[in-house]
Amino acid sequence: MVTPILLAALGGALCARAGVFNVALEGLVLVGAFSGILGNYLTGSVFLAVIFAVVCVMLFSLLFGYVSIHLQANPIVVGISLNFLALGLTTFCLRAIFNVKGTYYDKNMVGLPKWDIPLVQDIPWLGGVLSGHSPLVYLTIVIVLLLHLFLFKTIVGFRLLAVGENGIAAKSMGIGIRRYQYGAILACGALCGLAGAQLSLGQVTMFTEGMTSGRGFIALVAMMLGQSSPLGTMGASLLFGFMDAVSIRLQGLSIPTQFTMMIPYVVTLISLFFFKDKGYLAEAQKTSGSSR
Amino acid sequence: MLLQMEQITKTYGELTANKAVDFTLREGEVHAIVGENGAGKTTLMRILYGMEQPTSGAIRIRGKEASFGSPRDAITSGIGMVHQHFMLFSSFTVAENVVIGAEPVKGAWFDRRKAVERVNELSRTYGIPVEPERKAGECSLGAQQRVEILKVLHQGAEIIVLDEPTAVLTPLEVKELLAAIRRLAGQGKSIILITHKLHEVMEVADRITVLRGGQVTGVLEKAETNVEELSRLMVGRELAELNKSRPMPGEASLRVDKLLVRGDNGKPVVDEVSFRVAQGEIVGIAGVSGNGQSELIQSLCGLRRADQGTVALNGRDVTNKLPGVIREAGLAHIPEDRYQWGTAKDRTLVENGLMGHQSKFSRSGVLQKKRIHQAVSDWVQKFGVKTSSVQEKAQNLSGGNLQKLIVARELAQETPFLIAAEPTRGVDIGAMEFIHKQLLDKRTEGGAILLVSSELSEVMKLSDRILVMYEGKIAGELDGHEATEEAISLLMAGGKSKHE
Amino acid sequence: MNKRKEWASSLLHPAMAMVFGLLVGAVAVLLVGASVGETYAEMWKGAFGSFYYLTNTLTRATPILLIALGLSMAFRAGFFNLGAEGQMVLGAVSAALTALYLPGPGWLKLIAAIVAGVAAGGIWAAFAGWLDAKYKINLLISTLLLNYVAIYFAGYLVAKPFKDTTGSAALAQTPMIDKGAWLPKLFTGSSLHAGFLLSIAAVVILFWVVRSTSFGYNLTMTGSNGQFAAYGGVRRVPMMLAGMMISGGLAGLAGTVEVLGMQYRYLDGALVTPGYAWSGLMAALLANSNPIGAALASILLAALQTGAMGVERNTEVPLEIASVIQAVIVVFVSAKFGYSFIKRRKARNDRGSAV
Amino acid sequence: KEKDGASSPSPGAGGSAAPKSDKKVVLVLPEKIGVNPFFQLMDEGVKKAGKEFNVTTKTVESTDPNAFEQNLRAALADKYDLIITATFQAEDALKKVAAENPKQAFTIIDTVVDLPNVRSVSFREYESSYLLGALAGLSTKKNVVGMVAAADIPLIKKWTTPFEQGLKATNPNAKFLVNYVGGFTDPVKAKELALLQFGQGADFIIGASAAGDFGVFEAAKEKNFFTSGQDMDHTSKDPDHIVMSQIKSTDVAAYETIKEFVNGSYKAGAIDYGLKEKGVGLPFVTHETQTKLNPFITQETINKVKELNDQIVSGKLVLQNPLAQK
Lengths: 292, 500, 355, 326
Ligand SMILES: Nc1ncnc2c1ncn2[C@@H]1O[C@H](COP(=O)(O)OP(=O)(O)OP(=O)(O)O)[C@@H](O)[C@H]1O
Ligand SMILES: Nc1ncnc2c1ncn2[C@@H]1O[C@H](COP(=O)(O)OP(=O)(O)OP(=O)(O)O)[C@@H](O)[C@H]1O
Ligand SMILES: [Mg+2]
Ligand SMILES: [Mg+2]
What we know:
Chain C: This is ABC transporter permease. Chain C is mainly α. Chain C is about 75% helix and about 0% strand. Chain C has a domain at about 55-295. Chain C has helices at about 5-30, 35-50, 50-75, 85-100, 105-135, 140-160, 195-210, 215-225, 225-230, 235-265, 275-285, 290-315, 320-335, 340-350. Chain D has helices at about 35-55, 65-75, 90-100, 125-140, 155-170, 185-200, 210-225, 250-265, 300-315; strands spanning about 25-30, 55-60, 80-85, 105-110, 120-125, 145-150, 175-180, 205-210, 225-230, 240-250, 270-275, 280. In chain D, helix 1 (about 35-55) packs parallel to helix 8 (about 250-265) and helix 6 (about 185-200) crosses helix 7. The chains are: A mainly alpha, B alpha/beta, C mainly alpha, D alpha/beta.
């Protein structure tokens, strides 16, 4: 459930740490979801399909990088346009390649397998939550840890943080800002590709136009709430996922649906009272343009 | 010859910042560059460091032509630069700041422990003390300066460019820095030092290049010149001696009683301070930076909450009032940090000049743009601010010229009381003389001035009374006309030096 | 840098960017095997081809422009408001309900509805501002989240208590507002309504406020360097609340004129689907928060949208490709080429990365 | 690949000897066809009629309500002989435009606009929803039936309310679960909701969430429960799990309209399609299908539902339109 959001949020966090505010997550995930299905259709292998999705989204995010870094376009404008572009492009390709409108669904297409973890799956209740997911879900947990190590323990990660913290100073140290920002954007593309693949090959095995349904924006919120740290982002995504589950279960009660659907957003807002300004936030705002 | 810069010319639009400049550096020498604000010193060094490309001209290192497309190239050629405005990552530790770009590794990992060790080692070798595990943003300006130098040394620079390194330092820190510079030169490093303080030049430099209006007006051996000749070459005229008349203090304009301000950790940073500033007098505050001067000023201006005590300005209680209200009550303020408090960098000079004058230059909320434009143009002319137009963005002005604009703006408030914090920081000697004269004139007209400066000579030259701050308290008061440097230094040190 | 040059370059570069955007769009058209000339001709016709289409474009530009103007004011004060959508929706629903349930003559309803719409949007935005000022809650996140809350809440109002009970009533919408409270159309047979005049008035007023009043100056300075403004006696919190209030108020007005001038009722989703808020955000950013620039950028974005509709209607190019071309052009319009490219880069580097 | 199971009253019947026609017909949709099979069918109906009767046809999609009004007016300017549009979203704009142009012929599908130059074709989906509910009540083994609906808006009541009535009519003890996806394009969430309802014991879960239905189908396949689709006969996609479908022949509506327009028998006014006209219905019950009946639904159940159908058709059983206002 939270995996696509978390993956996209991690990508966004990486960009934010490099000083790029990436609002194109929604579009990137959508492209990932489509190319996952396309890859599966072309190669017949889910594994290759995931790779294909990752590569396609990286190409797409290269466009983001080129226009916002090389052509110095405003990253937010580019991000918003790319969201529109992704929607148009995937819908068009759906029609051009699969000759369907709306949804591509093939009962015989094989999605990502579900892996059961031995022992864990036998734990009552918890086993059902922790086990029986697609490999990408487990990969995501690994990615969170790797990203954490990468950012805070390696040299490349350290320099990436430097670029985001103070671009001019980094440049004066001879650190190529562009290279790091490109790297972050490409990595974000790869993560969004995985997010899309998990959406269209893991959670379901189909593609519907606009199937991201705002998940990319939730990822944006999760990334900001998690202060662009991998662990924080994971926490924020889990919080959101949990509240979403709560909200679904409240639907049957007498509260109007519109209010139960508000719950995840309101709770996230309230959680901001507890996780505020830990120093990094100010930096995040600087890079995202709100110079407070 | 280690470094030759030949016929360097750099133009920005219609403005020529460097015009056919020749500059040479010998191995192991300390070479000072002096010149007025906007003479083109920083520009020349930015070209050397690959941050700007010269419009024409060539750079040779050990006779071989070099071209620097970026700082990276300059760094590989053994050039390091400490910028006029620091280039630090404030949320990183000192050690991280020093090693960035050439970090120690352990396998695939960034070895932070080794980084600390290396910094300690460098620090010992060159006698430059720092606290490697402190966040750079929390360090005093002096310490940040030292971090910058260590950073350059860590990169293995042979040629070290220091752009106005002493502008923000206290006298003690200056002394330590100059000693470190000599030590570095002694160990074979070659140093280019930009400064406005000619006595520093005479103290450490081997050779001196003087720039004026983008051109070289002299290259001199230290031994064969003197302060007078240098200032003549810089300014193009003789400097007059300032004459300070005896004060005729009137009524108290500012009364501060038992003012207490707590720092972020809850400890008092200004500790029950009481003093008066009367009309027609200049009161100087001296002290090692970090002893509460900044906090004192900020709480006087309403930019920081005072926890106890009262501040009265021209008979009104202004304790913890909003900055706007306090200005209304008759306060103008030359801030100590011109970029943080004093300007909006991406705005024009006119817009920067308007700040604090909004009500004067508007009628029922509508700005009178002609008058503002005229006023700012007048200031630019009167203070000799070098700029192509008053519509220039503030960030394109050299540091000193921007400072002149701020001083002009605040003097033009014509308030009975003025806080002048580091009013001549980064300003050339000609302009400094001019600003000093303006402050004295204001005093003669009956203005009350609180001067806060880490430049002892400035405090001594201008003040009628000198208060020395130490650890948030006023450690003593001296008569400005009789105080000696020794007496002040003793109070500043509180009996023992703070920097040991 | 003198003024005239700056003007020239500020015009030249969008033009260059347009050309480049059109070139890339042409590639997309060629890829689907349609004729580039015909496609662009239809695009032009759909946007400006006749008086009717021109008014269509201006109608579409109206809400985008109002939102862009509002966001510009928040940006000027240094606050990034991502909540225009929610502010617009709340403004729209408040205006609709006021016009429906306030007794009195039509003109009174109309005026009261406009006031209610502006106030609702303004207060909703100021609420986010207040959360920031008082509790240091990141404005970017809070405004984004408050969108969902506002949209669901408005959806609830029109799906349950204030649902349309006349007609087929299948949609979540309010009943239709009395004719007396409609914003008049400017020309018969065209959709352009008096809301457009309101938006033009807003451009003029804000342009004047920003350039010539001390309030505008204080707002700009707060955004440019908040500490400097504080030092000069400008109070940050009132400035932020004012900036957010104006921003949200104009977004609310955008929703209001759509209700009173176009749909004559609040229809759930009708303001969200067209993505007015996102277009407005892009226009404000493209114009660098300048009111006149925002007007031009809004018309450009609206023209691209109406042009794309024309392409869809009259060529074999499918709707999706029309929207692809539109997105591609916007991407490249925001790019900075040539001379200004170098200049901007410098400015950016000096300021760190900036919006 | 995309279009299986055509709806049964074959629209092609009788169209073989169409006269040449120089008429121009346009279908202006208030939304993108996108995820809505209902619009897809309409588009197909129009295209088919166009080919058979040799009329020029064109389909224009709109991105949002304002764009729709512009497209409608543009169609007017382009002088189409007949302008067809559809759904409630089109009502407001059509009322305006049709009143302003009393000479122009308009048809609106799926709702009623009472103007002299408008032909309204609407559907009584509530009849088929009732049947589906009744069928679910008879079929469920666990006495728990679920529905994954698109959004909690009045429109959706056309499916939820009569369904529940039918369910209670045949099985008063059955529990009815409804969950809302909150959108029309989210199969991921729809699947989650279906799995949730399955976890709550439902063995028959109806999809009513546009593209989301595919998520419900997939959940059914994964967990082995039974499901039903909307608008067209989906049963052939996965006969083991998709055991029912609620048919709404918008293609017939579009096709017949054009046919009559070409024949000259076209008249303005309201027509509606219900069980009686076979405009709505269920495979096996009212419409023929190629698919084999899944044993989950016994022939006996089908027969019982057929009886209900007959009662409705004959007027013996009168159902309330859930959207009708008091
Ligand atoms: N990017 C720029 N665009 C336009 N003019 C510039 C730019 N950078 C510097 N200048 C101008 O070039 C001249 C030289 O500036 P520079 O910073 O080299 O002076 P400086 O000698 O270092 O002065 P200071 O002692 O005040 O630091 C100044 O007049 C300055 O306004
Ligand atoms: N010994 C110390 N322990 C903890 N923090 C220190 C210490 N010395 C300096 N600092 C920090 O570094 C900062 C030094 O700042 P700064 O140089 O601005 O001091 P200051 O009070 O403004 O003096 P001045 O007005 O002379 O510059 C202080 O604000 C404080 O936060
Ligand atoms: Mg300089
Ligand atoms: Mg200080």
